[in-house]
Every structure is written in structure tokens, then in C-alpha cells.
């Protein structure tokens, strides 16, 4: 499984309904699992982003479905980054000519 970091900003709708956010998080975990991904970690953060999540998914198509499904609810916008573990990093660097 590949690791992805998803960066989130609350939308106006998401902030207006912030008290429902924990229930929405539970629903997102279930939806991701149904699509073949797993939300591994969740962080509410201070700074440029509102939330950072760590997700494992089998491929880019799966994470794209997850991101689109999440964004379609209208509570957050997302930016997704592919993250490479240290082992993956070493393999990538080791394969350089």
C-alpha cells in the first residue's frame, strides 16, 4: 500500500457545521475503507492547513476516488501528496544512474 498525505482546509460550510465534524470523520473512515483505502492518522493543526491526514491506498486511482468523494461533500478542500517511506526513498535513490 502506498502512503498519501492529504492536506485539508475547512470550507465555509464545514466551519458552519463544525460540531458535526467528528461524525463526518467517522463517515470518511468508513467510506475510505469501502473504497480500499485506510485513514491511518488524523491531525487538527494550527497554521496554513486545518487538518492533515495520513492515508494508505493501493494506488493513485483509489486515493483520487477518496479525495473526490470527500471534496464532493463540501466541508473541506483537499490537496494530496504521495509520501515515500525511508525504505522507498533509499530504493529510489539507489536506482539512480
Task: Describe this structure as you would to a colleague.
- The protein is α+β, with helices and mostly antiparallel strands and about 100 residues long.
- It is built from four helices and four strands.
- The two termini are about 25 Å apart.
Provide a count of the helices.
4
Poorly predicted spans: none
Q: Given the helix and strand composition, which structural class is it?
A: alpha+beta
Mean pLDDT: 97
Query: Percent range for helical residues?
Result: 40-55%
Write the layout of secondary structure elements.
Layout: E1 2-10, H1 12-16, H2 21-34, E2 38-44, E3 51-57, H3 60-72, E4 76-83, H4 86-94
Antiparallel strand pairs: 1-3, 1-4, 2-3
Quick recap:
The protein has 97 residues and is of the alpha+beta class.
List keywords for this structure.
4 strands; alpha+beta; four-stranded antiparallel sheet; about 100 residues; about 30% strand
